[in-house]
Amino acid sequence: MAYDTVGKCTAPSGNGDWNILYWILGTICMPVALPLVLLNLWRRSLVAKQRKCLPGKVVLITGASSGLGEALAHVFYKAGCKVILAARRTDELERVKKDLLALEVVGTAHPPTVLPLDLAELNAIPKFANDAIAIHNGIDILINNGEISVTAEAITTALDFDLKVMIVNYFGTVALTKAVLPSMVKRQTGHICFISSLQGKIALPYRSAYSASKHAVQAFSDSLRWEVVSKGLKVTCFSPGYIKTQLSMNALTASGEKHGKMDKATSKGMSPDECATSILKSLLANEKDVIISDLPAKVGFWLRFVCPPLYFWIMEKEALSTAKEE
Length: 326
Hints:
- The chain is α/β, with parallel strands linked by helices.
- The chain has helices spanning 16-51, 67-78, 90-101, 125-136, 159-187, 208-228, 247-250, 264-267, 272-284, 295-306, 308-325, and strands at 2-3, 9-10, 58-62, 82-87, 113-116, 141-144, 190-195, 233-240, 289-292.
- The chain is 53% helix and 13% strand.
- Residues 1-14 have low confidence and may be disordered.
């Protein structure tokens, strides 16, 4: 741009700059942007269409007494679903139920049901599943969200504790899924959702037991997806990044005691409501494997697979720096 003697801005002296800009937009940006815009419009129309089918669907949510599970209960209840709340703490489930009944819902609202569930009690899970199925004669959407979190160094963590984490986060989830599957197969419809974690894809220090259990959930969901596709069933695995909940506060240490403090990364995480809304949209769009996180976490995930040497170098430097600070 040039300025005349009275200080007013004049037009460019030539069209060269504009020609270069048009060339960049037309040759580089447009071929990339246009498909993304069209894909986003298609996804939105699909979500809107599928959302109309949600009212009356039976949704079983584990770990529904707090955090992300509670937020998921809210979004599905407001969407007109018949929500079944499951967790160990019955008093907290009743609180969530009371909160749901107090909501103003557009359309028909179905009173939620409370069912106590301890994922560590594997032998009791088949009966729980039968009881849940009997409430509304089937389950349309199973959301495996129940878990325990662990923050502990691998060398100081007893093997029994690793086993406990795996039983709750993996075997409990698998047991419930297997108990619900036959009824879904019989009806030739159903959607099974696994709430894994980004740490099940890229593991972090002091999270070995937790990351291993979530990695196992990821693998199970990937295999199951192709086994049931011919039976009319859908499987989605969600891998959220940090969510601002009490999970890190309640995370267990190697001694079995509560961690008792919120990690810095967790305190800056997304809200449970934001994550739950994203999960609902991705579920309606029938996405298969979904990462829900901020951009840096997604970059870290892709860097792990696109350029492993650089990823390992960054992680090693970060680990050494943290060790020096301690």
